[in-house]
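F.,

This is the one I mentioned.
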């Protein structure tokens, strides 16, 4: 990276197939960690095993999260996510919302997750994810790349009483691209 021009020059032997997802999905996932700072021992939930979700799992692990739970519906991606730090996978096609809630509450001793990152882009995921975050935790929505509906939240129960931080994340800055590219080099 040149400090004057913000141009990245990857090593000549680096496969462009690695650079492209890092510069898009990886950058977006890196941006999430401007808003959340997992500490050693924290539990992070990631909804969606796509590229943004996989990068988010990797960055959560780098930040010291003890447990990284991923919800998704594609077995091959969920299995791959374990290579990037995911400790528990929940297939949404094999579990109900209630079953996933019970499993997550068991894993967190009844508290809920410290942080959740939505990387799916569906209102149902947001509704479910907000309910899984502990009091004082944070929920980030990064998966909406286009208008995809609305979600109704109870401002008292879901937000106020929980002291929940709710944050949207849209694309990234050059510093996020640098972080993501460093992760693949």
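My design for it:
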């Amino acid at each position: 990276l040149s400090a004057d021009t913000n141009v990245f020059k990857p090593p000549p032997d680096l496969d462009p197939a690695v650079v492209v997802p890092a510069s898009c999905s990886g950058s977006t996932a890196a941006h999430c960690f401007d808003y959340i700072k997992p500490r050693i021992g924290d539990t992070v939930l990631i909804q969606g095993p796509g590229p943004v979700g996989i990068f988010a799992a990797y960055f959560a692990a780098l930040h010291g999260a003890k447990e990284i739970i991923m919800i998704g519906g594609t077995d091959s991606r969920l299995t791959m996510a374990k290579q990037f730090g995911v400790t528990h996978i929940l297939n949404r096609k094999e579990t109900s919302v209630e079953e996933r809630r019970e499993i997550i509450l068991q894993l967190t001793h009844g508290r809920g997750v410290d942080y959740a990152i939505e990387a799916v882009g569906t209102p149902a995921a947001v509704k479910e994810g907000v309910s899984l975050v502990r009091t004082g935790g944070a929920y980030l929505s990064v998966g909406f790349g286009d208008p995809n509906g609305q979600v109704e939240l109870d401002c008292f129960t879901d937000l106020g009483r929980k002291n929940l931080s709710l944050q949207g994340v849209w694309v990234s800055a050059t510093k996020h691209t640098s972080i993501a590219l460093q992760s693949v080099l």
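The chain has a mean pLDDT of 94.

Talk soon.
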